[in-house]
Structures are given as C-alpha cells and as structure tokens.
C-alpha cells in the first residue's frame, strides 16, 4: 500500500466515523424530547466509539446532531476573493460570510428529518447562530489580508488600520447576514429557502436605509 493509499484509507475511515457519530446523535435527538436527556456517552456507544473519540470529531452533542464542522475558507475562495475599487464591501463580505458559513454544514440526514429536529429542539438553531461568530472571526482575518493586499484600498485609506476596517466591515456584514439567515435557521418550514436571494434583498435594504 502506497503512502497515498494509506492517507486515502485514513480519510475514508475518519469520514465513516464522523458520519456514524452524527447519525447516532441525530437519531438520539429524534427520539428524545429534551437534548439534556442525551449524553455524549450514549451517542458514543451508539456509534461504537469512545467519548474521547467523539470529541475528536465534534465540540458538542448539538454539533453532532446538526452535522456541523469548523468553518473553512476554500482555496477557490482564497483565489477569487479580491477587493477592487468601487466594491460594495458590506455586500461582498456578507456573501463571503454566507459562503464560509455553508462549509460548516455537512449533515447526512434528509431535509425533512433536519426540519423535524429543528422544530423538536429549538436550541439547535441557537447553536447554528453561534457558528456565525466563528465564521466572522475567520473571515475578519482573511479580509484584513485582502485589504492589505489591495493597492487601491490602501492608497485610498492610508491612515486606516486594515485590521480595524476589516473588523468593522465584517461586523456590519455579519449583522446583515444574520438578518437574512434568521428566518431560515429558526423556521423549519423555510429550510431550503434561497438564502442568496434573501441576502441580496437584505443588502439592498441596508443600502436603502443607510444611504441618502
């Protein structure tokens, strides 16, 4: 077996373990009225792993139920996201946040099952919202790098701190994205709604109310 085969085998094994834990947690949530009645130990037992292994894959049982992973910025986004003169930074960063937020979702259950879980356990929506905070922190670092790399931005704002500017833009863009995502994350019947279209409308609304 080559080194590449070994890596591929290890990745497949990790994927199987991740899925087993996620499905065990989702099944437990579907059969209990309260998440507090579900233990990490019971999820691990159902997935045939140890509690220690559970925490190698998920930060909490809520994350396991939802099939959430840490946010990542893909190589494609890194290559394509550039800040140009005249860009609407709030809208551009809002869509960047949405793109990165989507990388946290790797659920292996059906939309109907997912909607049922969200309706059965409203606290799961709050857990998803907390992931937006993680996404914002990750994106703020990335946007800072892009502002520094943008000759047009640095020449137009020579006295501005890129770090502070990025934090401000990401905070505002994050508020717009939250406004767009709130109904989707809190109402199971809207799961699957076109988030891009909603975010476009919210960005337009933000421009309308903040610009004369």
UniProtKB/TrEMBL annotation:
Residues 35-63 form the HTH tetR-type domain. Transmembrane segments: none annotated. Keywords: DNA-binding. InterPro entries: Homeodomain-like_sf, HTH_TetR. Pfam families: TetR_N. This is TetR/AcrR family transcriptional regulator.
């Amino acid at each position: 077996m080559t080194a590449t085969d070994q890596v591929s085998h290890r990745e497949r094994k990790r994927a199987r373990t991740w899925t087993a834990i996620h499905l065990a947690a989702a099944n437990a949530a579907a059969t209990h009225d309260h998440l507090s009645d579900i233990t990490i130990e019971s999820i691990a037992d159902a997935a045939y792993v140890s509690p220690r292994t559970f925490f190698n894959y998920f930060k909490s049982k809520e994350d396991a139920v939802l099939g959430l992973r840490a946010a990542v910025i893909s190589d494609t986004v890194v290559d394509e996201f550039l800040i140009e003169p005249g860009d609407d930074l709030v809208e551009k960063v809002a869509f960047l946040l949405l793109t990165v937020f989507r990388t946290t979702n790797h659920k292996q259950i059906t939309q109907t099952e997912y909607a049922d879980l969200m309706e059965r356990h409203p606290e799961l929506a709050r857990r998803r919202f907390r992931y937006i905070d993680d996404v914002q922190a990750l994106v703020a670092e990335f946007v800072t790098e892009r502002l520094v790399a943008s000759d047009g931005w640095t020449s137009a704002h020579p006295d501005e701190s890129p770090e502070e500017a990025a934090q401000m833009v990401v905070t505002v863009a994050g508020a717009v994205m939250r406004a767009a995502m709130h109904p989707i994350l809190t109402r199971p019947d809207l799961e699957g709604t076109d988030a891009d279209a909603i975010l476009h409308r919210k960005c337009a609304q933000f421009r309308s109310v903040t610009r004369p």
